[in-house]
């Protein structure tokens, strides 16, 4: 019988060890196609080999390990997550979803358990998009979604993606070889910290993800008229900042009314002087929902509200769409298996959607996907304070073990 408590401590210790690989001495910062990426692949690959797995690295720099089934023609099932981080990040986002299944496989093999499918674990080289400002590069390579023009995309040091791949020991022209066959592909399962406060609020160690929210992003520019703070009467002002403030509050209200999330995370104001009426204010909008139609209905209302505010305040508003991604719904059958596995641990089953993007979004293009969330302290993520509890990891190991043994 698998000792999940002991395994959980090993997972935590390995997260600690992997979390020391960083390009910065001051924080955890591990980016795509760097020497730290290569070092992380080497460390995790060693753990895979210790577990008796076959290992390889694909053309995009993703790390793979396979627990081979007895039948060489058996179907395959994939688990995994990403090994890159944001600057000043935490040591569980992504990494936990790679280390946990590798650690579990070693224990299952030792217990004499065999699965009727090849179990592949993948450590994606890039999910965060920190280096080349485009997310899910690792998982998109698996699904054959690397356009040719990405070769010329450059990082902040002026190094192109094609050059970075060459320096890493790969070649942009060979990236299509990283795409995997969908023949006999059963699905993809990703364990990930919640990155939110819901499970902690409910006092639950794990939860089943129903969907990954679809997001749209915009940049707005509100154009008024700058003027002297002391000489222009209030009723004659075309104050871009005041108009933007009303617009931002309107966005919040519409989001609350429609049960979606919408965030204005960045504001730029000009001239930005203490005694000058604002003449130009820019702000961002990130709007998300697990249901695309629900998000888009709210978005239409927001745009109408912003236009009405601009007209009433005698300012102009311009907008530019910068990002669009549809929601991804997790496979009903895989969700059912996860729920039953949680029930075997005598834990109430809670289903929630993910507001953050994950590699499962890309993988959904080629196979059924599912996600298991584990609670994290105060919902904090993308921050050094990111933390999880060892007993929760033990629960996730038990749930994953039961899930894998009951997939077929």
Please describe what this structure looks like.
- Helix content is 34%, strand content 23%.
- Strand 1 (54-57) and strand 2 (63-67) form a beta hairpin.
- The strands form 3 sheets. Strands 1, 2, 3, 4, 5, 6, 14, 15 and 16 form a 9-stranded mixed β-sheet that branches. Strands 7, 9, 10, 12 and 13 form a 5-stranded antiparallel β-sheet that branches. Strands 8-11 form a two-stranded antiparallel ribbon.
- It starts with a helix and ends with a helix.
- The protein has 408 residues and is an alpha+beta fold.
- The chain is globular, with a radius of gyration of 24 Å.
- It comes from Marinomonas primoryensis.
- Pfam families: Peptidase_M20.
- Homodimer.
Summarize the structure.
The chain is α+β, with helices and mostly antiparallel strands and 408 residues long. Helices cover 34% and strands 23% of the residues. The chain contains 11 helices and 16 strands.
Describe the main β-sheet briefly.
9 strands, mixed
Shape: globular
The parts where pLDDT drops under 50 for at least 5 residues are none
The DSSP helix count reads: 11
Structural class: alpha+beta
**In percent, how much strand structure appears in the residues?**
15-25%
Chain-averaged pLDDT: 97
Radius of gyration: 24 Å
Helix and strand sequence: HHEEEHEHHEHEEEHEEEEHEEHEHEH
Distance separating the two termini: 21 Å
Helical content stands at 25-40%
Number of DSSP-assigned strands: 16
InterPro entries: Amidase_Cbmase, Bact_exopeptidase_dim_dom, Peptidase_M20
Cofactor: Mn(2+)
Family: Belongs to the peptidase M20 family.
Protein name: Allantoate amidohydrolase
